[in-house]
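The material for today's practical consists of a large collection of protein records. Backbone structure tokens are a discrete shorthand for how the chain folds in space. An example says more than a description, so a record of this kind follows:
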Amino acid sequence: MRAAVLTGFRAPLEIADLAEPTCAEDGVVLSVLACGVCRSDWHSWTGADTDVALPHVPGHEYCGVVEEVGARVTRWKRGDRVIAPFILACGTCPACAAGNQTTCPTQIIPGFTHPGAFAERIAVARADHNLSPLPEAMDPALAAALGCRVTTAWHGLTGRAALQPGEWLAVFGTGGIGLSAMLLARAIGARVVMVDVVAEKLDHAKAHGADAVVNAATTDAPAAIRELTNGGAHVAIEALGIEATTVGALKSLRKLGRMVQIGMPAGPHTNMTLPMDAVYSGQLALFGTRGMPAWRYPSLLNLIEAGQVDLTPLIARRVPLSAASDELAAFDGPTPPGVAVITDFAR
């Protein structure tokens, strides 16, 4: 099968012909319909993620068609269109039994701990516990974009911070996570302030429903948010994984505010100096979140199918597999609005 392979950190991916993936007894093999290119893939490409061993096939935001089914799989058959969370849980441990599959101690993460979906086909283990049906009318490119950014934002907003209608949300970073959080928060009935340093991305967010935007390159963002919201945001989302935006998100909150760390801290940002005086005096809550359990997918898919949220503004570029390297390298600097999705695996 055709795949894009990382053979050296920060090196262009090599388009190679690899052996077909092996189907586990509890798993399936999918023909990949689409795969998103995510900032988390960039962390792998740069060598910042210690789970990645070379050579490696990236890609963790995917949907596909079931081509092969393991002997122990009961829920799926050949031809089913499915989507998977990027964390594949075991489904049986105490964490999974409590509904917290994203904390499963034996989790499998395609694109990081196992071969990913920058390929024509991918093996997905533990299929009965992790896959979710993909609505027939849903564009595969949109479904792939859900796989990390939208699902993580949805779980962060609803499963962690419990964002309520009428509350103010401040989003630091207007990439895929940030745009997802904005669109979903608006569907919930919240008001949203978007923060970035790229004017083009702020204009894009404003055009698609942001109540207000703040350019942190020219403005004291926390102060501006406190003024816009008459005291501070109720909830803040950090969507980049860097110290400056994490500090800004905490300082933008009103008292008893909630902040969700969605951006992945890696490399020099694994340790940060944070304003704990603001946490203490403001009695703030700080949540970490990573992914979304498979059992929560229907609530999100139903919201989309019912037309209550339009996520198509997320998709900026549909690219061939051969363009994956360029998309990863682009994360080294300010990126344009929207996200890229691989939809053509033949080129």
Observations:
- The first helix runs from residue 39 to 46.
